[in-house]
């Protein structure tokens, strides 16, 4: 199978209630009836995306705590606006770098989902969906 490269920003929602296209595509495919091979692949993709999401959340939390003002006890104070961070430019730079970072996951070949009639349009344009690899020509015996 071919690997696809996904940006962290493609799985980490800006607003927690707004899932990203990649996560919507995984959920959409999981709602469908599928064969064993696709089921195995999509569960593998789901685990990898979930693992990466947990890593992003932990790193984002660390960045927020690093640049948040502290109370008298040295604990981070909740900040709503970036401008209220101790160093807004550094916070923006670090969080932007985190969200631009990438990871790889197995791509889902179009042929594996082609017969699914009820997939959302966003699933088809998700970075998870890949064209099938062209068959390799047979080597001619000389």
Question: What does this protein look like?
Answer:
The chain is built from five helices and four strands, in the order βαααββααβ. With 142 residues, the protein is mostly helical. The protein has one domain. The chain has a two-stranded antiparallel ribbon. The chain has a two-stranded parallel ribbon with strand order 3-4.
Key terms for this structure?
mainly alpha; two-stranded antiparallel ribbon; two-stranded parallel sheet; 4 strands; 44% helix
In terms of topology, how is this protein built?
Blueprint: E1 3-7, H1 21-30, H2 36-67, H3 88-100, E2 102-106, E3 108-109, H4 110-113, H5 121-124, E4 129-130
Parallel strand pairs: 3-4
Antiparallel strand pairs: 1-2
Helix pairs in contact: 1-2, 2-3
Q: Which overall shape is indicated by the principal axes computed on the Cα atoms?
A: elongated
**What are the low-pLDDT stretches, counting only 5+ consecutive residues below 50?**
none
Question: What is the average of the pLDDT values?
Answer: 89
Number of domains: 1
Give the beta-strand count.
Answer: 4
Query: How is the biggest beta sheet arranged?
Result: 2 strands, antiparallel
Radius of gyration: 20 Å
